Amino acid sequence: MTIHAQLPVDVLNARIAKIQSLLANTQAQAMLVSTNVNLYYTSGRVFSGYAYIPVQGQPQYFVRRPVGLTGDNVHYIGKPEQIADILTQLGVELPANLGLELDLVAASMADRLSRAFATATISNCSTVLRAARAVKEEYELDLLRQSGIKHAESYSHIKSLYHEGMSDLTLQIEIERISRLNGCLGQFRISGDSMEIFMGNTICGDNADNPAPYDFAMGGAGLNPTLPVGCDGTEIKPGMAIMVDVNGNYTGYMTDMTRVFSCGQLSELAVKAHECSRRIVAELAQMGRPGVEAKTLYERAVAIAQEEGLDAYFMGHKQKAGFVGHGVGIEINELPVLAPRSRDILAVGNSIAVEPKFVIPGVGAVGVENTYIVTENGMVSITNAPEEIISLDN
Amino acid sequence: MTIHAQLPVDVLNARIAKIQSLLANTQAQAMLVSTNVNLYYTSGRVFSGYAYIPVQGQPQYFVRRPVGLTGDNVHYIGKPEQIADILTQLGVELPANLGLELDLVAASMADRLSRAFATATISNCSTVLRAARAVKEEYELDLLRQSGIKHAESYSHIKSLYHEGMSDLTLQIEIERISRLNGCLGQFRISGDSMEIFMGNTICGDNADNPAPYDFAMGGAGLNPTLPVGCDGTEIKPGMAIMVDVNGNYTGYMTDMTRVFSCGQLSELAVKAHECSRRIVAELAQMGRPGVEAKTLYERAVAIAQEEGLDAYFMGHKQKAGFVGHGVGIEINELPVLAPRSRDILAVGNSIAVEPKFVIPGVGAVGVENTYIVTENGMVSITNAPEEIISLDN
């Protein structure tokens, strides 16, 4: 069982070279990666252990579990204190400054790792990995496109899953099942302090106006104070908008996609806001070209909502989200971020979920979300499915 | 919307007093809690923000999101740098030493929080919270028992979900659905570097012998190198054992339970190993009393497996897990741990999942897992369901 699993060696080599060129701009001479998501990124599979990436030369993989991994530069260890010795035996010069993922690794573990490289000072290499991951390789774009196709397929079944008397929860459970049967891996990864994510959220009626603790575009009260987000058991009734934001992870690369369903007739205001969301994603897709500042897309979205007199409902009503889009990949929230204080500049190969949403009191949440890939000619959607509000009941 | 949600105030007050008495044994005069799981524990609901718990006096809650939380000692903030000023305005003396959850909080965030209390030295209060949480209050035991009842109910449907031609994956998807319809909240929490968990694992045949990176009792190859654990799509065929270890989170408090199903006839060795597992849980339940060292339960389990000539298969075959049980509660892995180097001493109110399992090559994984509560008279199971191997196909 090779450590690189399905990842082609030339793809891995190019990726390591990209990371090394970013690492060369920091004070670190090497970095030690220890989180699952970045071990996958730097090796091709999740394992328990560490990836040591010097600014020049080959990466070395230090594995605790599972047993039986093979491949160049794989070393089994019991504890991280063995790493420096093994590197020395290999003739690798230990770094004067070592990069650690300080935005991700627990403080006590970071302290332990820094002591395991006793002579090194420590710097934060989280930014290097975030920057590398923001620009997807063709190999990654293929996996994203495959996920987007499957994601849209799963959504195509939603109308047929509905029956009268369902709640947001029972509908969501059937969407979870159809997604899983269609290949969704079930588990998602999310970055950031206190962020947690399940398979996604189905929110209907005024539950959309219940604020959540998470930095998501939409909230919902949830079913329990331990997990206060998403569906709350509201029965689906005429006049309600049902927003389905169930995520797609069909390849390890995640797509984000939202569609809105209706029961009975929605208010004119809700329909208008939904059309405004469609206008925003269309305009932003045109604007989203390499070299463009990410924040200008956010500003344009806000301006359109204001122009249409909908700003009171834009990105939430009682509580507002501070962004209109975010990168997606091996985590559901990557760079670039489309937000007012974002310093990100769009580049070819960014994959970005754009989600201009509105909460209309008495109706629910409306708006669309697609995942796009940035090309020279603008952003191309990879979650292709009808954007209109779809009636569940006729 | 009160911050304490459903948590009765007297339960919260007693819990804070328990935490404070443990905190008094450390060098810290206060601790600042910032992870979702411990915010829930110290307030009664998950929010984005911080709980400040002094060694004496009332806790103070600093909330970023959601909007609209009410209750005594709730303060809205934009950033943690405001906390010290607000405490000073309240007349609270700032601590000379501040406890942070250094085993959980990212290094850069811990650094930021320590700078926000510029005059304080920092210590690690992770242990205080782990110790407090290991001993459940009656309120918590009720939630655990409710979860166990629902968990067993969900398992009672499994045989009826099976049809010929199913894979481990398609069976698992139906178990996920029936669990959700029966009230499972879907999302689970797990502690520890690099630990990740979905709803659970269904493992059949020789997939049980595929080692995983996670520190779980059982492995499985999984469906993708980004998530290398659990079912791998193996078709269920005669002679195979199907181990279902799908977790229970019906109340925010999690129960852990495993049962084994068969297709066709299992080998004598597999049946013998399953009966040995039943013997181990029965003996350990008798042994598990207050004051007993947790490691002695592990040692006894190993001794029984050796006595029956089954040690080659115990807790894995190609890769072995280094424990036979673990605490459960608001995370799936709490204290005490039944492992050779555990220093934990059992106490009334511990809730412990005991999972002596065997991997039999050519057959699969066998054994049972129950969640127990430690009482003066031994451990009492709260996941009550038949322990025999259940035939799926007749």
Low-confidence regions of chain A? none
CATH architecture of the largest domain in chain A: Alpha-Beta Complex
- What best-fitting shape of chain A do the alpha-carbon axes yield? elongated
How many distinct helices of chain A?
10
Largest sheet of chain A, order of strands side by side?
4-3-2-1-5-6
As an assembly, this protein is homodimer
Under CATH at level 1, the class of the largest domain in chain A stands as: Alpha Beta
CATH topology of the largest domain in chain A: Creatine Amidinohydrolase
Q: Strand portion of chain A, in percent?
A: 15-25%
Series of H and E elements of chain A? HEHEEEHEHEHHHHEEEEEHHEEEEEEEE
Separation of the first and last Cα atoms of chain A? 52 Å
Biggest interface, and residues per chain? A-B, 65 and 66 residues
Tell me how many strands of chain A there are. 19
Question: What Rg of chain A is obtained from the alpha carbons, in whole angstroms?
Answer: 22 Å
Helix content of chain A: 25-40%
What's a quick, concise take on this entry?
Chain A has 394 residues and is an alpha+beta fold.
Please explain how this structure is put together:
The structure is a homodimer of 394-residue chains. The radius of gyration of chain A is 22 Å and the shape is elongated. The model of chain A has no long low-confidence stretch (mean pLDDT 97). The first copy, chain A, has helices at residues 9-23, 36-43, 83-89, 107-116, 126-134, 138-156, 158-161, 168-181, 268-287, 294-307, and strands spanning 30-33, 48-54, 60-65, 74-76, 97-100, 121-124, 200-204, 241-246, 248-249, 254-255, 259-262, 325-327, 334-338, 351-354, 357-360, 364-367, 370-375, 378-381, 390-391. In chain A, α1 packs across α5 (126-134) and α9 runs antiparallel to α10 (294-307). Chain A folds into two domains: 9-133, Creatine Amidinohydrolase, Chain A, domain 1 (3-Layer(aba) Sandwich), CATH 3.40.350.10; 135-391, Creatine Amidinohydrolase (Alpha-Beta Complex). Chain A has ten helices and 19 strands. In chain A, 30% of the residues lie in helices and 20% in strands. In chain A, strands 4-3-2-1-5-6 form a six-stranded mixed beta sheet, sandwiched between helices. Chain A has 394 residues and is α+β, with helices and mostly antiparallel strands. Chains A and B meet through α2, α4 and α8 of A and α2, α4 and α8 of B.
